[in-house]
Design the sequence.
């Protein structure tokens, strides 16, 4: 007999945890759609030559290739034709290039699907995980004004998820590159320095400073100190952010362009009513991916900095240069929801959700089966989610089952209730029981559920930071 076990690097949840995860997905989806983003899905696998536009490197070493058993028997040692997607950006680039003449630009898309990477098996690292992405793609040009809308979407998402205080950190790659130019750091060395500065939170200032002074870079000591001071600039409010940008002094034309765009984004965020305590500039943020060319974003939970970035992204000049001659600039962000959910659960910030079932209709004896079935159908017709016990069991065991499954309301119709034309409703959360006329049952349960939702304790709730219902 084979021992049942899940492969390493996947997150498999029990039903009530899965409900909590699904509600996070639903909340994110509603937030994305609230800003006018449209859904797309792409195949879980892509043609290898399309997916791997740059052969070799770390990316290809993490890719899962797809091979049918028939093709495997005929394999000649060549790379398989298909590979599982490792992110949602490359499939988006292929999608936009392929359907370019059928899309309305700017194209506002959201995508919430699993991706696959051959990560080394370790705690908290996943080989299969959900990404929740949005991007705005322009044709030829895309106004920097969209760069300010993206953090407003981030704010709406995490406000709706109810995870407590958070900060959207913002920086601009033109500001960084222009500052480097002013220090005499040019060309490929800029990207190398950017990558090092992006490691400040992980490696610490001393390690990054030593690297920049070492043989690999050999930057002058005064240049390194200027870089470190620049990277430590963080704001604490809207006016403080503008003041800190002003205090940087004059710079190269590229520096001034980046500063102007960052200022404009801050002003647009304020105009959209995003609380100034929820966003800030952080000049250490560079984002590791080289294709970011403008605004970059990172989002962290204020009370749980150890969780790291929970949402990141930025502006890029040309999404699909490998697939089309059209220039398709864009801006977007990604939420790695699987890892975020796992980290929240590990930190005790997620509890098992109530069931999606509103009510359990019990069965005391076989004679009551037809009535239980008819009653359940009537409740479903009224818009309730209903589970019916199809085999009679002791009432206590049926209550235990409902409690374990997370079903809050249980309906009982014994001989006494039948004689009086009522049913008994047990609220397992409160531990209370009340009688209601059978023809008023659906309405009564709907009122109860609406009151619970209004109080933040119903089945549509998110989980609050302390693990209780908000």
Sequence:
């Amino acid at each position: 007999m084979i021992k049942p076990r899940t492969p390493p690097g996947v997150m498999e949840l029990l039903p009530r945890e899965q409900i909590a995860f699904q509600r996070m997905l639903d909340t994110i989806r509603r937030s994305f759609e609230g800003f006018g983003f449209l859904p797309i899905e792409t195949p879980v696998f892509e043609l290898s030559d399309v997916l791997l536009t740059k052969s070799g490197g770390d990316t290809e070493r993490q890719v899962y290739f797809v091979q049918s058993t028939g093709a495997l028997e005929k394999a000649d040692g060549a790379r398989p034709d298909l590979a599982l997607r490792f992110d949602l950006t490359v499939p988006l680039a292929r999608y936009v290039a392929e359907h370019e003449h059928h899309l309305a630009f700017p194209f506002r898309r959201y995508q919430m699907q699993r991706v696959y990477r051959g990560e080394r098996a370790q705690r908290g690292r996943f080989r299969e995980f959900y990404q929740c992405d949005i991007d705005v793609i322009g044709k030829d040009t895309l106004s920097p004004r969209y760069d300010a809308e993206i953090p407003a979407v981030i704010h709406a998402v995490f406000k709706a998820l109810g995870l407590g205080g958070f900060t959207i950190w913002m920086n601009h790659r033109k500001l960084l590159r222009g500052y480097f130019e002013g220090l005499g750091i040019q060309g490929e060395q800029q990207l190398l320095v950017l990558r090092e500065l992006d490691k400040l939170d992980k490696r610490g200032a001393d390690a990054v400073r030593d690297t920049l002074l070492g043989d690999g870079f050999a930057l002058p000591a005064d240049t390194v100190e200027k870089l470190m001071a620049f990277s430590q600039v963080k704001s604490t409010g809207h006016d403080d952010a503008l003041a800190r940008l002003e205090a940087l002094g004059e710079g190269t034309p590229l520096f001034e362009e980046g500063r102007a765009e960052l200022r404009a984004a801050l002003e647009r965020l304020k105009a959209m009513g995003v609380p100034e305590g929820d966003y800030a500039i952080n000049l250490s943020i560079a984002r590791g991916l080289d294709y970011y060319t403008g605004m970059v974003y990172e989002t962290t939970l204020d009370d749980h900095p150890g969780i790291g970035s929970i949402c990141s992204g930025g502006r890029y000049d040309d999404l699909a240069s490998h697939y089309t001659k059209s220039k398709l600039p864009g801006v977007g962000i990604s939420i790695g929801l699987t890892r975020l959910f796992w980290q929240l659960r590990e930190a005790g910030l997620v509890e098992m959700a109530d069931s999606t079932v509103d009510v359990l209709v019990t069965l005391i004896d076989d004679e009551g089966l037809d009535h239980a079935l008819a009653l359940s159908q009537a409740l479903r017709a009224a818009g309730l989610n209903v589970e019916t016990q199809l085999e009679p069991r002791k009432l206590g065991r049926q209550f235990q089952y409902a409690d374990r499954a997370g079903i809050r309301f249980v309906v009982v119709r014994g001989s006494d209730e039948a004689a009086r034309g009522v049913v008994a409703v047990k609220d397992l959360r409160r531990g209370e029981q009340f009688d209601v006329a059978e023809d008023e049952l659906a309405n009564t349960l709907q009122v109860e559920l609406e009151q619970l939702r209004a109080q933040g304790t119903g089945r549509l709730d998110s989980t609050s930071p302390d693990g209780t219902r908000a």
The domain at 359-454 is CATH 3.40.50.800 (Rossmann fold).
